[in-house]
Amino acid sequence: MTSNLTMASSPEPHFEEEKNQSYVKAYRSEFDVPDDKLVEAIEYLGRLPGGIVANRDHRKLNQAVEHIDNLRSRPIAVPGTPGVLKEYSYDELYIILVERNHYPMKDFEKLMKKFEDRFGYLPSPPEFVEFYEEKKDELEKEVKETNEALLESQVMLQGNQIALEQIQQALEQERRERQALKQEMQQALEQERQRGQSLEQELQRMREREEDQLEEEVRYMIKRVVCKVCFEKEVEVLFLPCYHLVSCQGCKEQLAQKKCPLCRAAYQGTIRVYFA
Ligand SMILES: [Zn+2]
Ligand SMILES: [Zn+2]
Questions:
Q1: Domain assignment of residue 172, yes or no
Q2: What's the distance, CA 262 to chain centroid?
Q3: How many domains would you assign to the chain?
Q4: What is the CATH number of the domain that holds 244?
Q5: What pLDDT score was predicted for residue 76?
Q6: Which of these, 49, 45, 69, 75, lies nearest to 57 by C-alpha position?
Q7: Per-position DSSP letters for 112-178, written without gaps between them
Q8: What range defines the domain where residue 249 resides?
Q9: Sorted alphabetically, which Gene3D superfamilies does this protein's record hold (predicted)?
Q10: Which of 78, 80, 101 has its CA nearest to residue 88?
Q11: Which residues fall inside 5 Å of ion ligand 1, going by CB?
Q12: Residue 131 and residue 243 in one domain
């Protein structure tokens, strides 16, 4: 938004000195311009950033002459002293170029900056139009490059998206495989557990059967070794000749008749037996 007609700190250019400089000579060999116009243009260059020392360039001199012509023919009236040059302000240029002549806002902003960077002042409207024609391709190229970069990053994003989806799919696949493996292992464990349980039951049944048998045997043994008369003491007496091992010594002595208590046959003798 600044006008670049800043006062330079370097000394005012003297026309007599400047006209011997090569840039003035080069300009004069190309164009036929009256001295007063040239003086004005050189003074203008002297007021640009860096002063005359930084602006001794025959293209700049040419540009300054044309710029001053453009300012003189500006359609907007200049308040103030007649004959004094007034630059177009940024706001004026915005109204003329963007609002009235419909140059795109973005192009306007970019070109104003580019112009100021190159020349040290803001353009007049005709200079802007000329500059726009010159820079149109460059602007389009910039837009195109921006779009291409955008497209490229979009493609990259899509690539990333695809990679992400692939990773997610792989993860999902692995998750399903683990799940299946877990189920398989659980089933195997369950089968093993059931097998263990039936083994346990079988073992239990075997134990119970053994215990029953043992009990039976014990009962059988007890029945055999207990005296069949008193059912208290061990059998001790073997009757002859029937060979029945039936009673204890006490019960034998108390028998009323000399008969075997089991078969009731008269015994002829007895033998005392002892269990080892
Ligand atoms: Zn007895
Ligand atoms: Zn007997």
A1: no
A2: 101
A3: 2
A4: 3.30.40.10
A5: 52
A6: 45
A7: HHHHHHHHSSPPPHHHHHHHHHHHHHHHHHHHHHHHHHHHHHHHHHHHHHHHHHHHHHHHHHHHHHH
A8: 237-272
A9: Death Domain, Fas, Inhibitor Of Apoptosis Protein (2mihbC-IAP-1), Chain A
A10: 78
A11: 227, 229-230, 247-248, 251
A12: no
Q: Which ligand is nearest to the CA of 242?
A: 2
Q: How far is the CA of 182 from the centre of ligand 1 (A)?
A: 72
Q: 274 C-alpha vs ligand 1 centroid, how far in Å? A: 15
In-domain check, residue 225: no
- 179: pLDDT confidence band, cut at 50, 70 and 90? very high
Residue tagged 């059931």 (tokens): 194
Q: Which of 135, 170, 192 is the last residue of a domain?
A: 135
Cα-to-centroid distance, 180 and ligand 2 (Å):
78
**How much distance in Å is there from the Cα of 244 to the middle of ligand 2?**
5
Report if pTM > 0.70: no
Residue with tokens 């055999």: 224
- For 221-268, write each residue's pLDDT tens digit: 888 889 999 999 999 999 999 999 999 999 999 999 999 999 999 999
Domain boundary among 135, 153, 175: 135
Q: How many CB atoms lie within 10 A of CB 119?
A: 19
Segment 29-42, tens digit of pLDDT: 988 888 888 998 99
Residue 84 lies in a domain: yes
Q: Which ligand is nearest to the CA of 227?
A: 1
